[in-house]
Amino acid sequence: MLIFVYGSLKRGFALGRLLAQQEFVATASTQPLYRLYDCGSYPAMVTVAVDGRSVKGEVFRVDQECLLKLDEAEGVEEGLYVRDSVHLCPPFDASGAFAWFYAAPTSGLVDCGSAWSGTDCFS
After folding, report:
1. How far apart are CA 1 and CA 97, in angstroms?
2. Is residue 20 part of a domain?
């Protein structure tokens, strides 16, 4: 299964170690249907109806065991994130990958533009 990561799961970031044994496929960008917010030590991507942006990240091919560990790390069971299909730009199929979407309100969070680095979000 292909997944798209855009924050703390990227290579070199805090949770990137969870993908160390999985196949890195490529860097990628989403279609401009999303917004990215800074939650401090991690980002929050949400789907929006208007004013969406293309989010930059990485695509990995993961096995089922890893996918379940990622769901746990992302707080899916607690309702913090929801794993769903994400629309990527070519050369990827439009909705051929999955990502984790923030399930809590984003009001008051800082907009990150198209990429999260933990330090360069907009105020």
Report:
1. 7
2. yes
Tell me how far apart the alpha carbons of residues 18 and 120 are, in angstroms, rounded to a whole number: 24
Q: Could you read off the pLDDT of 79-109 as tens digits, one per residue? A: 999 999 999 999 988 678 999 999 999 999 9
- Residue 14: which CATH number? 3.10.490.10
Does residue 64 lie within any of the structural domains?
yes
Phi, psi of 66 (to 5 degrees): -65, -40
Structural domain contains residue 121: no
Q: How many domains does the chain have?
A: 1
Please write down the HEC assignment for all residues of 35-82. EEEECCCCEEEEECCCCCECCEEEEEECCHHHHHHHHHHCCCCCCCEE
- Assess contact for 105 and 44: CB atoms under 8 A: no
Q: Is the peptide bond before 91 cis (omega within 30 degrees of 0)?
A: yes
- Print the domain residue range for 6: 2-111
- Token readout for 92 is 């990827």
pTM confidence score: 0.93
